[in-house]
């Protein structure tokens, strides 16, 4: 259903292009066209609230009041229009009421609805960093956090063998709450030949349900042993590195990678999804919306000129292009909350009110950092983390972005991935020839 999102800035609300917002004297309602509950609170952040108009609005102007004061009137909005009220105070409760107007006549009044903005989350993190690798180019590419004491990280970590000469490659490392333990995850190619590959992505549902992907093979760790579950390319000539995985459970896993590859694993078979691109797909994330439907988005880009990029919506094993208007350069990562906020990161950080597929304005946050961003993750609209080149590490508390580059920066490296969970942030990547993992606790 088409949604129209309307931004409300308290400083300039009466200059909005939707209406001249001339003063209108309200009269007693002649006739109510709907029930009294046709406006509801959709979501809340620290400085924003989202309201949804659910009733019919044909041939009417909707006037919105906040705490008894008119803030907006909208001529003939679409049903299910989402209104974003901005520049609010964190941790404060507001009351809203909507009026249907035909000329100067009030034809419907909603019941008042109240909503509280979120408070600000703490930026006070204490950081600790570990380095791994003795030879060659070691790096960590992805992380899966089960708990603070059960973490998997994957990549390529080269350690000298017993002679101190030949590098020995480990492709995973596990945190048990007290120490990191190097691991080797064994894959198989299509002819069942065993091999150790560097790993780009890991996905964990529990401590006995962890998934790893090579260019050809998807394997599961059940807490005791590894088992091969599926192959990506039945021809046995796969050229695509799997860059990211996302899923809801072991029977619903999506994998994206180089050359536009998208696969959906259902627990019994691996289905390829046509992406319509040869760009490297770099990230994928999904979330349940208010209709209890999954929204899944993947992003892809070319980091070289002309910086081709794309956002794909994946639904029923079909990938559909979403507008990237307003994004001039490449995209590396995404995070979103359906119906509220969407973020993409790359050369800059980009923010949208509502979903990626909505036609609302895209805001470029180019004043947050001077570094390229690789990854973004969030657990609430007031608790988001991002990371990138030279060890840039950012946290959003609901109102402001805080950089920790002066505490965790890397002189010759970058963080490839980041996760935030409860009071815990973990980022990983490389510095010089060593793999790096940094953890922040608050």
3D structure, described in words:
Strand 21 and strand 22 form a beta hairpin. The N terminus is likely disordered. The protein is mainly beta. The longest helix is centred in the last third of the chain and has 4 residues. The radius of gyration is 24 Å and the shape is globular. The strands form 10 sheets. Strands 4, 5, 7, 8 and 9 form a 5-stranded antiparallel beta sheet that branches. The chain has 2 domains: 112 residues, Sandwich (Immunoglobulin-like), CATH 2.60.40; 316 residues, 7 Propeller (Methylamine Dehydrogenase, Chain H).
Distance between the termini: 41 Å
The helicity comes to under 10%
* CATH C-level label of the largest domain: Mainly Beta
CATH architecture of the largest domain: 7 Propeller
Question: If you consult CATH, what is the topology of the largest domain?
Answer: Methylamine Dehydrogenase, Chain H
CATH homologous superfamily label of the largest domain: YVTN repeat-like/Quinoprotein amine dehydrogenase
Shape: globular
Question: How many strand elements?
Answer: 39
Spans where pLDDT lies below 50 across 5 or more residues: 1-35
**Which structural class matches the secondary elements?**
mainly beta
């Amino acid at each position: 259903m088409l949604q129209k999102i309307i931004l409300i800035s308290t400083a300039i609300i009466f200059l909005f292009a939707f209406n001249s917002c001339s003063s209108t004297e309200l009269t007693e309602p002649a006739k109510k066209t709907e029930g009294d509950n046709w406006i509801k609170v959709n979501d809340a952040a620290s400085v924003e609230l989202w309201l949804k108009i659910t009733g019919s609005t044909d041939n009417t102007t909707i006037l919105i009041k906040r705490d008894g004061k008119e803030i907006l009137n909208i001529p003939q909005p679409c049903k299910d229009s989402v209104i974003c009220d901005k520049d609010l105070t964190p941790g404060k409760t507001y009351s809203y009421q909507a009026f249907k107007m035909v000329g100067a006549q009030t034809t419907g009044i909603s019941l008042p609805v109240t909503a509280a903005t979120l408070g600000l989350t703490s930026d006070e993190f204490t950081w600790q960093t570990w380095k791994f690798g003795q030879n060659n180019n070691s790096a960590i590419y992805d992380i899966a956090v089960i708990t603070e004491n059960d973490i998997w990280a994957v990549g390529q970590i080269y350690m000298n063998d017993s002679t101190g000469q030949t590098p020995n490659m480990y492709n995973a490392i596990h945190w048990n709450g007290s120490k990191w333990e190097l691991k080797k995850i064994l894959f198989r190619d299509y002819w069942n030949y065993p091999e150790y590959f560097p790993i780009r992505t890991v996905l964990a549902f529990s401590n006995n349900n962890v998934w790893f992907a090579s260019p050809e093979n998807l394997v599961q760790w059940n807490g005791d042993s590894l088992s091969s579950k599926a192959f990506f390319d039945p021809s046995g000539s796969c050229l695509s590195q799997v860059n990211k995985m996302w899923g809801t459970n072991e029977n619903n896993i999506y994998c994206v990678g180089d050359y536009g590859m998208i696969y959906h694993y259902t627990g019994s078979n691996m289905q390829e999804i046509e992406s319509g691109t040869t760009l490297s797909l770099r990230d994928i994330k999904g979330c349940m919306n208010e209709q209890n439907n999954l929204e899944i988005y993947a992003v892809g880009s070319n980091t070289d000129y002309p910086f081709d990029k794309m956002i794909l919506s994946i639904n029923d094993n079909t990938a559909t292009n979403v507008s990237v208007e307003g994004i001039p350069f490449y995209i590396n990562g995404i995070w979103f909350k359906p119906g509220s906020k969407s973020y993409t990161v790359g050369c800059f950080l980009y923010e949208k009110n509502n979903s990626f597929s909505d036609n609302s304005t895209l805001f470029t946050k180019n004043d947050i950092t001077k570094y390229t961003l690789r990854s973004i993750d969030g657990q609430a609209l007031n608790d988001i983390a991002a990371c990138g080149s030279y060890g840039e590490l950012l946290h959003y508390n609901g109102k402001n972005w805080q950089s920790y580059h002066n505490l965790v920066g890397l002189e010759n490296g970058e963080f490839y991935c980041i996760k935030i969970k409860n009071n815990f942030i973990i980022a990983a990547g490389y510095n010089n020839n060593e793999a790096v993992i940094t953890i922040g606790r608050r």
